[in-house]
Amino acid sequence: MNLSPPVILTIAGSDSGGGAGIQADIKAISATGGYACSVITALTAQNTCGVEAVSAVEPGFVRAQLDAVLYDMPVRAVKIGMLANQAIIREVAAVLARSPHLPVILDPVMVATSGDPLLDKHAMTALIEALIPRATVLTPNLPEAARLTGQPVPTSIEQMHALVPALRRLGCPYVMLKGGHLHHVPESVDVWISRDTCQTLSARRVETANTHGTGCSLSAAIASYYAQGMTPIEAGRAAKHYLTDALAHSQQLKVGRGAGPVHHFYAYPVEASQPDVKEASVE
């Protein structure tokens, strides 16, 4: 049987701990029915406890990866995560300009879950000018939205809604403002913003320390569902449902000493018993 799942390209940094970045994107895209290909923008030495070092990929090699994938693969949607610096942002924007109808889900990664900075301080202008207006869906968390708009970090749902006009002015047709940082709110509340409407997306709040890679996984799942034919808001709702369940099952994973990853493949349980493998004799 031949399978032809939709191809989703993720452009992001590598997480050596496997919980975020390219690794989380590939897991989320695969778990939600897509086929993931990738362009790596940076290498990170990190684990569940934090980021030890970051090495950005040479911008020309980022372009070479993009050219190779887009030449051969029938990419249906692009997810963008960590971009590291201004030069890489410009390269990615230049290549994507050749495919103006290709949907782009942009997660403006600036800081890791551990608090470590992941975006060069000189890259903000390039991100705002060159990539955000090109994106289809922008998925900032509250600190990222505050940096993008120059406003204080929201501390309530009302303050999230107050950011809507400034987020619209960034030029992206859809914004999913993630409210996961509002830990005092009993539900996980996001605000879905279009050019003329604003809707609240709510789900149960999962109390867990295993939140590593949540933003990466959400945006990758949106790209996957969008590539499968959902509308942007349908993809946003489906991705939020998927992430909620991945968080709810995260305690099943015993990985690392710090903030562990979500359980991307919770719907595909692994049997506890080992398969009966017969040893082959060697002559």
UniProtKB/TrEMBL annotation:
GO cellular component terms listed in the entry, alphabetical order: cytosol
Going by the UniProt record, its keywords in alphabetical order are: ATP-binding, Kinase, Nucleotide-binding, Transferase
Q: In which pathway does it act?
A: Cofactor biosynthesis; thiamine diphosphate biosynthesis
**Gene3D superfamilies named in the record:** 3.40.1190.20
Q: Which residues form the Pyridoxamine kinase/Phosphomethylpyrimidine kinase domain?
A: 15-263
Question: Any idea which GO molecular function terms this record carries?
Answer: ATP binding; hydroxymethylpyrimidine kinase activity; phosphomethylpyrimidine kinase activity
Q: Name its GO BP terms in alphabetical order.
A: thiamine biosynthetic process
The enzyme's E.C. designation: 2.7.1.49
Keyword Nucleotide-binding assigned: yes
Q: Which SUPFAM superfamilies match?
A: Ribokinase-like (SSF53613)
Q: Which InterPro entries match?
A: HMP/HMP-P_kinase_dom, PM/HMP-P_kinase-1, Ribokinase-like
Q: What is this protein called?
A: hydroxymethylpyrimidine kinase
